[in-house]
Amino acid sequence: MGAQIREMVLADYEAVVALWKSTPGVDIRPVTDSREGIERLLARNPGLSVVAVNDGELVGCALASHDGRRGFLQHVVVAPELRGQGLARAMIGTCLERLRQHHLGMVHLDVVVDNESAMAFWQKAGWHRVDTLTRLSLAL
Ligand SMILES: CC(C)(COP(=O)(O)OP(=O)(O)OC[C@H]1O[C@@H](n2cnc3c(N)ncnc32)[C@H](O)[C@@H]1OP(=O)(O)O)[C@@H](O)C(=O)NCCC(=O)NCCS
């Protein structure tokens, strides 16, 4: 049986974090990626984040959210043994379909600068690098 894509729920948290931790290039944040942080994300963005489940095992996830103007994708990961089967494309497609219902102009995502594989993946999927903007951040 192929993997299934479904809405992420808080009960997925431990398996999702285990997948992130086992994936080089995923930057796990202490506040926003804590259980409470993910609970807040899911509550503020109902139905937007998804997971992929194969034979009862969580093998993929994609966090999606929006602020009313822009959408965001974060922590898109597929377990190594399930890569190359269209799972990321399916998860992202589901996220984008749901984000489109919120009348947003754009969807953004961050790629760690040396994650060339991820950059190649996103560009192949039609995402473009924004060279006219520099992201500024301040810790709260
Ligand atoms: C990037 C990642 C999510 C892709 O997952 P995946 O399930 O293997 O991707 P898919 O099978 O859905 O691939 C969709 C398409 O992208 C292509 N693709 C997949 N990985 C690619 C890569 N690293 N570089 C270029 N193209 C890639 C596939 O060949 C496929 O092409 P097609 O449309 O011609 O068939 C997965 O490799 C991963 O988890 N990487 C580590 C975590 C990571 O870096 N995430 C991104 C954070 S910004």
TrEMBL record:
One of its GO terms (molecular function) is acyltransferase activity. CDD domains: NAT_SF (cd04301). Keywords: Acyltransferase, Transferase. It is an enzyme of class 2 (transferase). It comes from the Bacteria. Residues 3-140 form the N-acetyltransferase domain. The keyword Kinase does not apply. Its EC number is 2.3.1.1. Pfam families: Acetyltransf_1. The keyword Acyltransferase applies. This is Ribosomal protein S18 acetylase RimI-like enzyme. It comes from Caballeronia udeis.
